[in-house]
Amino acid sequence: MITRRHALCLIGSGAASLPGLSHAQARLTYELTPKPVAQGVWMIEGSTDYFTMENGGAIVNCVLLQGDSGLIVVDTGPSLRFGEALHRLARTLDIRGVSEVVNTHHHPDHFFGNQVFAGQPIRALGETIGLAQAEGDGFADNMYRLLGDWMRGTEVTPPRNVIEGGDTTIDGRALTILPLSGHTGADMAILDQSTGILIAGDLVFFNRAPTTPSADLAQWQSSLGTLAALRPAAVLPGHGPLDPSGDAIRQTSAYLDWLADTLTRSAENGLDMIEVMQSPLPKRFAAMGAQPQEFQRSVSHLFPDVELSVLPRGN
Ligand SMILES: [Zn+2]
């Protein structure tokens, strides 16, 4: 395993001269572009690929909301360096910079940029704070292994200010906080009241395969039902493009249905894990970003429990 210390040694200051590195990778620079999606709402849209040394883990959507005294950041990206880029970007939109930070859930690509905003409130559901504290170091080891020097200097900085469900105001902006779960043990969705934009976090993926390391698929489907019933003006998913059509929620739900069904049928037919991983994907799901890696990861996360549940009882 490559630890944080090893990752620092691997590239050192010589990255720019190593052959085979892309320009961005050699400079370890995130090129973030704010995309205006509604009045006072900007999206920084991540790649729909898996974590790579080329994208530096910039695979997540972050959101900037105009507040009274600065910008409210929803999710801070995968690394210290990403958080710094986000901070610089915020200042180009509002000279006062970032006033508040909100984390939708405890996955590392959503909160490892928090370190940069340690002077501001960093809000999350209470369960998310506990999960980030409990699992953050394990996630960090994995992220350093996947992204090497992109992670340089990143220290796990869990959110610390509890946010409750319901209608609330953050830095003057009226929001409805939806405390849900299923993608993880605690997933926050946020409805921006003035624009009707639903910031769905990783409860919704669009044209990018959902990730399932912490998932409860039945609970996740229930949360998607809650989100669909809101009839938002547009859904801003955790990964993938903005969706004004409602397709993103339907697509995520259809994929999770198919995944659960595929795992159950495979277990009933006695397939082993490797055979399931090699199953062909239907065209509409094979075309999603990060496939077939995410399907294969889902098999490794979920199949052992599914196998147990279909074993004949009474032995
Ligand atoms: Zn996630």
Automatic annotation (TrEMBL):
Question: Known InterPro entries for this protein?
Answer: Metallo-B-lactamas, NDM-1-like, RibonucZ/Hydroxyglut_hydro, SoxH-rel_PQQ_1
Q: Pfam families from the xrefs?
A: Lactamase_B
Question: What start and end residues bound the annotated signal peptide?
Answer: 1-24
Gene3D superfamilies on file: Ribonuclease Z/Hydroxyacylglutathione hydrolase-like
- UniProt domain Metallo-beta-lactamase: residue ranges: 59-239
Q: Which UniProt keywords apply?
A: Signal
Specify the protein name.
Quinoprotein relay system zinc metallohydrolase 1
Q: Which organism is it from?
A: Sedimentitalea xiamensis
